[in-house]
């Protein structure tokens, strides 16, 4: 896996993944053109885990219509300001979803499949919750 980051101006950078996809990242909180690198970590975590949850539910023949993952994180107050706590909350919509299967999908993602979650859990306490949306 490879990636490249290129400085544009001020604290703005473009990132290009090895697969050719691009993103703008910005360290300027006030007039930024994209998420900060730390926000990108949270987006990656939520994306990784959401992919797992959808995939596991679909394999379990659940009729998933929509999944949203809200992420809240706390950071250390001093440098390096690493994440200390991260919470993912999944909102899942579907037809006659099985609560037990949803709980198991979230658990499997957190403990077995989501590389981002497992890696970040070495530094931060990661918790999960979920709800079925009607």
Automatic annotation (TrEMBL):
Species this protein is from: Thalassospira alkalitolerans
Pfam families in the record: OsmC
Domain of life: Bacteria
Protein name: Peroxiredoxin
């Amino acid at each position: 896996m490879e990636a490249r980051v290129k400085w544009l101006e001020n604290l703005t950078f473009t990132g290009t993944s090895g697969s050719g996809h691009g993103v703008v990242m910005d360290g300027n909180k006030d007039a930024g053109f994209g998420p900060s690198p730390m926000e990108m970590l949270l987006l990656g975590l939520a994306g990784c885990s959401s992919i797992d949850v959808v995939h596991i539910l679909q394999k379990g023949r659940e009729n998933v219509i929509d999944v949203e993952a809200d992420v809240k994180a706390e950071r250390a107050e001093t440098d390096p300001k690493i994440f200390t706590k991260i919470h993912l909350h999944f909102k899942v919509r579907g037809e006659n979803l099985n609560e037990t299967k949803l709980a198991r999908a979230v658990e499997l993602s957190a403990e077995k499949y989501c590389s981002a979650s497992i890696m970040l859990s070495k530094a931060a306490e990661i918790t999960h919750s979920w709800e079925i949306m009607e």
